[in-house]
Amino acid sequence: MYPFSYTKAADTRQALTAGRNGGRYIAGGTTLVDLMRETVERPRTLVDISALPLREITVAKRGALRIGALVRMADVAAHRGVRALYPVISEALELSASAQLRNMATIGGNIMQRTRCTYFRDVNADCNKREPGSGCAALHGVNRTHAILGTSDDCVATHPSDVAVAFAALEATVVLLGPDGERTVPFANFLLKPGSTPNREQALRRGELITAVEIPALPRPLRSGYLKVRDRQSYEFALTSAAVALHISGGVIRQARVAAGGVGTVPWKLPAVERELIGKQPSDTLWATAAERAADGARPLQHNRFKVELLKRTVERQLRIVGGGK
Ligand code: SF4
User: Fold this and answer.
1) What is the residue with the minimal CA distance to atom 2 of ligand 1?
2) Is residue 79 included in any domain, yes or no?
3) From the CB of 138, is ligand 1 less than 6 Å away?
4) Which partner from 7, 21, 83, 276 sits 20 to 30 angstroms from 304, CA to CA?
5) What's the structural domain count of the chain?
6) Is 150 a pocket residue for ligand 1 (Cβ < 6 Å)?
């Protein structure tokens, strides 16, 4: 460790002032404290925001959902309204981390968590994300768990969050509060692909704070769920995953929301798969045909070519689980 100062914000105004002055927000601390121990992150000032009133889950009449940024992962997963309306969110959370971590980590912190790329966490390795301009050791190194979609020559790391995949599929919105007031950012624009600046990961302005994640109302009935494929059955990150939500009425798929995890530098929305599904009748043939589009644009690396086929199979299987078939 190294010296840093710590302050606990009593209210939002105090937090924003400290954030504007370069303070780093911390709540559950399940990612940041680890990274500080390893000296991967070296914030000079920590601003504890755990006392802010951001712990509510609100369900609006038509099924829109607002999750406060400081609600614990475990509490979101167990919430009756979330379970009833969006099982894909509960399932993604329950398949994440350990029970102890889910009891500590917040929703805002979860989507802000940093990559599990081992080179990023090894301060002796070249890593453009940790140290811009130093290179990317993963590009020609051991890259079995890395991304096949949204990569650049500067970074090929995956985003590790499961629930972020559900949020991407459901076309959530992130609510931000900063020195200039409140604004909302579509989830698809909140997490940034690496491009030539992999050190910049979110569309946050200086001092901005996540206050909530909002899920828009979707037509009912809505079936949804999350499938995670990994090397071991618990406490492991996804090799591939699929979040699927389908509105089926009169035997026809009217709306489809599909995203993948473990394969992209950000949670990866699959619009080509969604387009294949809309207006069609559920069937095993349809699931297979649609899932063929899941890896469109993939650029596999030396050790992760298997993810192309695995991704298609993961999506196909989850479409069948959620949508049924004939
Ligand atoms: Fe760093 Fe990204 Fe390369 Fe990993 S993949 S070493 S995080 S630049």
Assistant:
1) 155
2) yes
3) yes
4) 276
5) 2
6) no
